[in-house]
Structures are given as structure tokens and as C-alpha cells.
């Protein structure tokens, strides 16, 4: 969901603007680093999930609504 939306609604606009400026300039690999960083920031929550589905639900929730770590 993050890639499909280009991280819109997940990252603050100023960060999103800088990232997409780099992507448009040809640094497409940057998107993978952004995704990994988002997962790392949620590491404690994800490690507390008891099933893969619970982790996926959390990541989907983050995609739909920015939370305190965005």
C-alpha cells in the first residue's frame, strides 16, 4: 500500500516532497530505503504482534492514517 500511494498519507508532506524530488531525479532505489525505515520505526509494535496477519493489519492501519511515529 505504501508503494502504491508513493507514501502519500504515510509521511509528512515536507518529507514526501523531498523524497519524490529525488525519485523524479532518478533515485528510484530511495523508495526501498524509505519503506525499510518505516518498518524499522515500527519495529517494537511489529515484534509485539502474535501473527503475520496482525502485523499486516498494523502496517495497513499506518498506511491509512499517520500515527505518532510518522
Word description of this protein:
By secondary structure, the chain is mostly helical. 60% of the residues lie in helices and 0% in strands. It contains four helices and no strands. It has helices spanning 13-24, 30-41, 43-47, 52-64. The longest helix has 13 residues, at 52-64. It is elongated and about 40 Å long. The model has no long low-confidence stretch (mean pLDDT 78).
Overall pLDDT confidence: 78
User: Rounded to an integer, what's the Rg over CA atoms?
Assistant: 13 Å
Q: What letter string, H or E per element, gives the SSE order?
A: HHHH
Q: What is the strand tally? A: 0
Number of helices: 4
Our measurement of the CA-to-CA distance between the termini, rounded to an integer number of angstroms, reads 16 Å
Largest sheet properties: none
Strand content: under 5%
User: Unreliable segments (pLDDT under 50, ≥5 consecutive)?
Assistant: none
- Class computed from helices, strands and strand pairing: mainly alpha
Helix percent band:
55-70%
State the shape: elongated
Amino acid at each position: 500500500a505504501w508503494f502504491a500511494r508513493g507514501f502519500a498519507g504515510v509521511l509528512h508532506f515536507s518529507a514526501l516532497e523531498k523524497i519524490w524530488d529525488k525519485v523524479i531525479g532518478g533515485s528510484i532505489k530511495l523508495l526501498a530505503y524509505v519503506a525499510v525505515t518505516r518498518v524499522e520505526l515500527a519495529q517494537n509494535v511489529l515484534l509485539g504482534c502474535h501473527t503475520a496477519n496482525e502485523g499486516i493489519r498494523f502496517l495497513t492501519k499506518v498506511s491509512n492514517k499517520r500515527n505518532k511515529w510518522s
